[in-house]
Amino acid sequence: MKRTILLGLTLLGLVLPMIADQRPPVFVFGGKQFYVGMPRHEAVISLSACCKLSPPAEGEVEKESVPVPEGMMLGHMILPKGEPPQRILGAIYFSGGKVVRITRPMAEDVDSYNDDLVGFARAIKRTLVTETSGSGTSTVVVSVRHERINNAESDAVFFTFPNGHGIEIHIGTLDKPAKDNNKRDFVTMDETLN
Question: Which residues contact 71 (CB under 8 A, 6 or more apart)?
């Protein structure tokens, strides 16, 4: 009996700190943290210090007090205050008086109309569509590791599906520039079977 209690307390001592450390993921805008589940009112007030929402948070639906249908989200772009509205910092979505989704660009200084980037993204989508039969969801394991080969270093990102099919992306730097283009940085993307 004492052994069981001691084992239970030991497990609690190991598990509780891990649970306590599990905070919701946050995005930061204007030095303030935002997270899914945050009260709408609190998010709107915090954003007003640094940003403006488009459409404004007091949009027509809110002004008219029309109930939002169950499951429907109201989305607003987050724009910097005092700057031309070309730059979008992110987007925030509300439903049921709470934040239900937040987005932000992964990289700001990327030409989203670049043909190579568009082709790269479409290649990933084609592979994903194959795995999800065109629609729906699939579980994927994501792993990252640093690799060193004889003439380069790279960080590899692996997306592995339950059936063993996967996507492998290497983002790397050659030790010496390539002879054909004089560039050192590279990205490769391959489909894999594991």
Answer: 95
Give the pLDDT mean for 66-91. 76
Q: What does 50-92 look like in DSSP terms, one character per residue?
A: TEEEES-TT-HHHHTTPPPPTT--EEEEEEETTS-TT---EEE
Please give the model's pTM, rounded to 2 decimal places. 0.64
The helix or strand, by DSSP H or E, that contains position 170, with its residue range, turns out to be: strand 165-174
The Cα–Cα gap between 73 and 49 comes to 23
Nearest residue to 90 (alpha-carbon basis) of 59, 132, 50, 45:
50
pLDDT digits (tens, 9 = 90+) for 23-77: 789 999 999 999 999 999 999 999 999 899 989 887 544 444 445 555 567 899 9
Note the Cα 132 to chain centre separation in Å: 20
DSSP state of 39: B
Peptide bond into 55 cis (omega under 30): yes
